[in-house]
Design goal:
Layout lengths: L1 H6 L16 H16 L3 E4 L5 E5 L8 E7 L12 H16 L7 E7 L12 H6 L18 H7 L17 E9 L4 H5 L3 E7 L1 E10 L3 E2 L11 H17 L5 E3 L3 E4 L5 E2 L2 E10 L2 H21 L3 E10 L2 E2 L2 H13 L6 E4 L4 H5 L5 E6 L15 H20 L1
Parallel strand pairs: 3-4, 3-5, 5-16, 6-15
Antiparallel strand pairs: 1-2, 2-4, 6-14, 6-16, 7-12, 7-13, 8-11, 9-12, 10-12
Helix pairs in contact: 3-11, 7-8, 9-11
């Protein structure tokens, strides 16, 4: 917990925790975490993307490897635990092995991914996609708010953007990837449980929906002659909420709304909004999204407007490995806790890593389910349970 407090001081903004990709704050973070990795007996390196990798060798150097970890970047005005908790818990579990002079029949690579949130360049899972061999070279041309390209940022951070392909895993057979993460939801707290085992990660689709009508004078245009884009958007927002409430495990959100021309005395001529739809079952998500976009077209038709929808990003749901999940559940039970299984509505590096190997996740209870917020909080006792569970998981994996 003290280490997480230390990392919470490494920020690009003085009055809040903001740790973008390849920033000076990230450089300080990688440097400090590397010290802790070395103290736990790991060989440490940083790849071209900026991922920090600590390797705890097994009894044979050419054996299989288990990957564990999470991300070290943050959103703007973040909490201290989303991402770094998983890295620090992994180091603590390896530290126990090191302190006992114990090696396992497989190597352990602890990964501190350089960018999961996509805060600076808008491309999520940057670090884990590189390790999974799914990095898109076109992303190197993305620019941040001040015009710096991802290519330039990567080079300034010590990597070679022309060799990102070298970051893809080539270290031999893998046993899987395991990630510890705060739940970012209220389920564990409601059940009074310190940890839970993730069964699946919800698929998601994000669209930009734009209603186009006609800007007009607010004082002289009769109500029955208006083509009000914002009124259509408002109707659609409520339709999204209504549809989402009608399906179990479905969540749908309009988090952005831009109105043009945006004047107090002008009927809005254009309204653009975001649509985020998530569900553990891709078929349900796809059908719901199709229904919502059809509703947008119906609203536009009734109001004599035009509407356009652009798919921004889509990811399929990820089912966690039955084998690794069973071992993780047994680890929880061996420590005297119920092994509740639950789906994750948020995306994680495990999504990208599932393209490379089997994945498993352990959730840690967070107060009020609050995340991406300075109020983000976890209990020391719950973190202790998470370390014990991960340590037991390593033992069971070694036995199997």
């Amino acid at each position: 917990m003290e280490r997480l407090d230390v990392l919470g001081t490494f920020s690009a903004e003085a009055d809040m925790l903001t740790r973008p990709y390849a920033s000076e704050a990230m450089r300080e973070t990688n440097s400090r975490v590397a010290e802790w990795m070395r103290g736990a007996g790991m060989e440490v390196r940083q790849d071209n993307t900026g991922n920090l990798i600590g390797r705890f060798v097994g009894t044979t150097r050419d054996g299989a490897t288990l990957l564990v970890g999470s991300h070290l970047d943050s959103v703007r005005d973040a909490g201290r635990y989303d991402g770094p908790l998983g890295v620090i818990v992994a180091i603590a579990a390896v530290q126990r092995l090191h302190d006992r002079g114990r090696r396992l029949p497989f190597a352990i690579d602890v990964l501190g991914f350089a960018d999961e949130e996509g805060l600076r360049f808008g491309c999520t899972y940057l670090g884990s996609r590189a390790v999974a061999g799914r990095f898109e070279p076109a992303d190197l041309d993305r620019v941040d708010a001040v015009g710096t390209s991802l290519r330039e940022a990567m080079r300034d951070f010590g990597g070679d953007p022309d060799r990102v392909a070298d970051d893809a895993w080539r270290g031999g057979p893998l046993l899987g990837y395991c990630e510890v993460h705060i739940e970012q939801g209220p389920v564990l707290e409601a059940r009074d449980l310190p940890v839970g085992v993730v069964s699946a990660i919800a698929g998601q689709a994000r669209h930009r929906v734009t209603f186009t009508g006609e800007a007009a004078h607010a004082g002289t245009t009769p109500m029955d002659r208006r083509r009000d884009a914002l009124a259509a958007a408002a109707e659609f927002v409520l339709a999204v909420e209504r549809e989402a409430r009608s399906h179990p495990d479905l969540v749908a959100t309009v988090g952005q709304l831009t109105v043009s021309p945006g004047a107090v005395n002008v009927v809005p001529g254009e309204a653009a909004l975001s649509l985020d739809v998530r569900h553990p079952d891709d078929a349900v998500r796809i059908e719901t999204t199709r229904n919502l976009l059809a509703e947008a077209r119906a609203i536009a038709s009734r109001r004599s407007l035009d509407v356009a929808a652009e798919l921004l990003v889509e990811s399929s749901s990820v089912r966690c490995s039955p084998r690794l999940t069973a071992l993780l559940a047994r680890s929880v039970q061996d420590l005297g806790h119920p092994a509740l299984q639950l789906a994750s509505g948020a995306g994680h590096d495990a999504v990208a890593m599932s393209d490379l190997t089997d994945v498993a996740m352990l959730f840690v209870r967070c107060k009020g389910g609050v995340s991406h917020n300075p109020a983000e909080s976890v209990a020391t006792a719950d973190v202790a349970v998470a370390i014990d569970v991960l340590a037991r998981f390593l033992e069971l994996l070694a036995q199997s």
